Here is the input.
Amino acid sequence: MDDLQPVDNQRGKYDRGPQSVNGTLYPTVLSSTCATSTWQLDRQYTRLTVSYGLADSSSSGKTVQMYIELDGTRKVERDVAVGSTTPVDLDVRGVFRITLASNYCFTFGMNNVGAWIDPVVIKAP
Here is the structure.
């Protein structure tokens, strides 16, 4: 998704760069303490591959809700704790817009960082 710019940052903004998640330093991560951003795919892509988790700097014992929406329909949703990653492989054929979100990052004053690891959308041939 490095070649795409968000068309809408409903809340917060993702930073691009390296981030340590689940004990591994990843060079390509979209991360934020809380963000919801949407990218326009224009129905020109076939697959999304990404993993998600919380940055290792996040608080223990708290969770962040992370989700993916395709054209406004939630396809992936999970409460995430620090110390794990979850891979995702989604069919995005015919999708106009995709949204990546991390919610409830400031639970009880804790500062948690949602991380989308190596997000890639594959363009249709």
User: Anything to note?
Assistant: Residues 63 and 117 are 17 Å apart (CA to CA). The chain has a mean pLDDT of 88. The first strand starts at residue 6 and ends at 11. The radius of gyration is 14 Å.
